């Protein structure tokens, strides 16, 4: 078999065989196929698309490119949750303790990732001393005893995806449904959970810009999961404006703590309850969605979810004093208000621009080696649909560098679209795909 022939076949719009896909992934992982040939193949896939069979084959080839986790030592049905990526997405930090507080084992492997803010793993490091590198046995023991562990994804899990994703990132081939579906599902399948709830984001701040393409991606991922015996549900949710109010690492941790204390932003709580209730359904605790929602809300009201967060952070070595007293979290030197220069209604908040502003303040990474500033970011004060008057505070910039803070203020004003007419017909939850 030759890589040249595989590229030619895909370029001509034909379907690749299982053997051809395995050949490409095995040899690329080993370093025997150069990036330039894979780049050409990726671009052919981008233009000619992949069939469902090719997408499944690619997923399984990437699963088999490295280790797969055997979690059979963990009692019960293990659930995992994954988001396709958005701006200010704090859901895992809230959901995981809520679901675990119901006695359902939550096993979560998270990435650091490049992007506007760090990944869940980076955010958790806002708790001083928190360790994201548990041994496999510690990971299993923690889930068995307290029902929750969140660790960094190891390098041996779906290594083919790691290489491919990095290459897609620099060859403009990220936003293809088959490539995203196989990338996400290969990691989820290798990470060993029995059931998976996916949060597929749609809107300006997401890979999928339209509801149609988000549906297509959701259906493809659910199909792949079910085909390999993992119960999979995908929630399609809005990413046309940032989720919640906080965008940044420690700022999102504080927002998560406040939500678990019953003082969270409405949209963030609603999405957490929607995703969480589907995790509860998949765990088999109940078959009634309304009952699942009530059970989850009760974990907040009773304080059990907040207690679970403390237990979880403590078990992984983190300082829990900042959960009771959030002023102990990392704080920025400057907090600068951004004020409205126009009266009207907020009709749009450009999610992608907000993400970039947070990144320029230091909340995210542009290269793997960048060090994140946990303290900086943005806290929105007005969201889509809100009425504003001249002089009202739209948002607060949290900066450690005065010049970066000033620049962020200028950019943030431009991210808010204020109009005379109120229009807010974008739903938070578009659909749920089973
Ligand atoms: N998240 C992933 O893990 N992979 C993609 O391709 C896109 C989002
Ligand atoms: Ca948020």
UniProtKB/TrEMBL annotation:
Report keywords, A-Z: Glycosyltransferase, Metal-binding, Transferase
The biological processes this protein is annotated with in GO are: pyrimidine nucleobase metabolic process; pyrimidine nucleoside metabolic process
Gene3D superfamilies this protein is in?
Nucleoside phosphorylase/phosphoribosyltransferase catalytic domain, Pyrimidine nucleoside phosphorylase-like, C-terminal domain, Transferase, Pyrimidine Nucleoside Phosphorylase, Chain C
EC class:
transferase
Required cofactors, per record?
K(+)
Q: Which GO terms describe its molecular function?
A: 1,4-alpha-oligoglucan phosphorylase activity; metal ion binding; thymidine phosphorylase activity
The protein's annotated catalytic reaction(s) are: uridine + phosphate = alpha-D-ribose 1-phosphate + uracil; 2'-deoxyuridine + phosphate = 2-deoxy-alpha-D-ribose 1-phosphate + uracil; thymidine + phosphate = 2-deoxy-alpha-D-ribose 1-phosphate + thymine
Question: Could you name the domain of life of the organism this protein comes from?
Answer: Bacteria
- What's one GO-annotated cellular component? cytosol
| Task of the protein | Catalyzes phosphorolysis of the pyrimidine nucleosides uridine, thymidine and 2'-deoxyuridine with the formation of the corresponding pyrimidine base and ribose-1-phosphate.
Q: How does it assemble?
A: Homodimer.
- Return the NCBIfam families for the record: PRK05820.1 (NF004490), PRK06078.1 (NF004747), Y_phosphoryl (TIGR02644)
Q: Quote the protein name from its UniProt record.
A: Pyrimidine-nucleoside phosphorylase
User: Which organism encodes this protein?
Assistant: Clostridium polyendosporum
The coding gene here is pdp
